[in-house]
Design brief:
alpha+beta, Arc Repressor Mutant, subunit A, three-stranded antiparallel β-sheet, two-stranded antiparallel sheet, about 25% strand
């Protein structure tokens, strides 16, 4: 099984009106994710590789795989910087 990015254990999340709300328990940081961000967030379980995340999103969005990969990488980098995800 390949490893991939993983949500941090101290983050709780819920879908509300098509968006995903993520709360970091340690400091109360709240981040609201749009629909694609929420999809990526939910797939970041530590078992799903970035390649697999990109593959799944390519089936849902009309964009070149390279563009989707860059967006996924940027999203993950942002969440890592916020302390909400690890690679």
């Amino acid at each position: 099984m390949s490893s991939g990015p993983r949500r941090c254990d101290d983050c709780a999340f819920n879908r509300v009106a098509g968006e995903t709300v993520v709360v970091k328990a340690l400091d109360g940081t709240v981040t609201v994710l749009n629909s694609p961000g929420g999809e990526i967030w939910e797939m970041c379980d530590g078992r799903t590789s970035i390649d697999r995340i990109v593959e799944r999103l390519c089936g849902d969005y009309d964009a070149p795989p390279g563009t989707i990969r860059r967006e996924v990488e940027a999203f993950i980098d942002s969440m890592v910087e916020k302390g909400m995800m690890t690679r």
